[in-house]
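HUMAN: Ready with one sample?

ASSISTANT:
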Amino acid sequence: MERRKFLKGAALGAGATALATPALAQSGKTMTIVSTWPRDFPGLGTSAQRLAARIAQLSDGALNVEYFAAGERVGAFDSFDEVASGNSQAYIAADYYWVGKHPGFAYFTAVPFGMTTTEWNAWIKFKGGQQMWDKLSGEFGLKALPCGATGTQAGGWFNKEVESPDDFKGLKMRIPGLGGNVMSKLGVSTVSLPGGQIYENLVSGAIDATEWVGPYNDYFMKFYEAAKYYYTGGMHEPGGGLALGMNKAWWDSLTEWEQAVITAASHEEHAAQYEESMALNGEYLNKLIDEQGVEVRAFNDDIWDAFGEAATEVFAETRDHSALAAEIDDHFQTNLVEIGKAMALFEGTFVNQRNRVRGLL
């Protein structure tokens, strides 16, 4: 799919929704959404815009949705405080951006060696994960729902090959969340940049490497102009989800029907973004290789072992933060073992054998 066609389609979809019930929309409750993604940003940004439009459409005018991309109302990383204060009603973001507020937020996006998207969905929806999320978010006056997922993310873009744990020492890398803490233990100088600022920092040499999402989302970022080595599945973000974080007082003021509309739209987009990524990652991986000469690599076992040792330290430090952090980690890890074991024995066994027999790798 060409970028221009994609953005045109997304814009038309949002516009059609906005024009559907103009009279009703003016009389409804206002829902101002701020986002951490730039406007018309392929993948993450267009998904957020699609969700905003869908909430307005499903509410049939009961909710007058105003959407602001990163920088249009507040800066990307200011969206948490904007919503917690009540200045806006909701944000769309990756909740691991807020680990400075509380490290427990990482579990509601992704953590090193954690759950895949399928496993995380099971935990959130059917094993009490949403209740843990509510407990944490509630301490900050927020209510969060899953609203997007990208699947297992790439290990990152590097301007040199990394062949041993020592090769990470001295690198400057954009990587947020607990994954960033793991990299720090390997000697990486980590920074957390909004998506719209990564390219300029990579091209200028301010950073040597970055993680982002996966082939579909990454293709449009043009990281290949500064970093030709693209590492497959990383430890830092095996799956999980994005958040529609809402001001809890505002959420509590809604009718049950209005809450149901927002929940339905959020869950719908959560599935749609993941499925879109799965549908397009293969196509755009081929484009990166064939059109841009990107060299695809995988971290070797020595590096994975070093990641694992560092992650063990990071989880211990996270648990030491507070009783709530330990409670969230206990809940997450217990369910990871239970859900992950069944996934490994059935889906894992099948996928590995399918790929072997059919020569997909």
User: Anything to note?
Assistant: Residues 284 and 290 are 10 Å apart (CA to CA). The chain is about 50% helix and 15% strand. The domain at 9-149+239-280 is CATH 3.40.190.170 (D-Maltodextrin-Binding Protein; domain 2). Residues 1-25 have pLDDT under 50 and may be disordered.
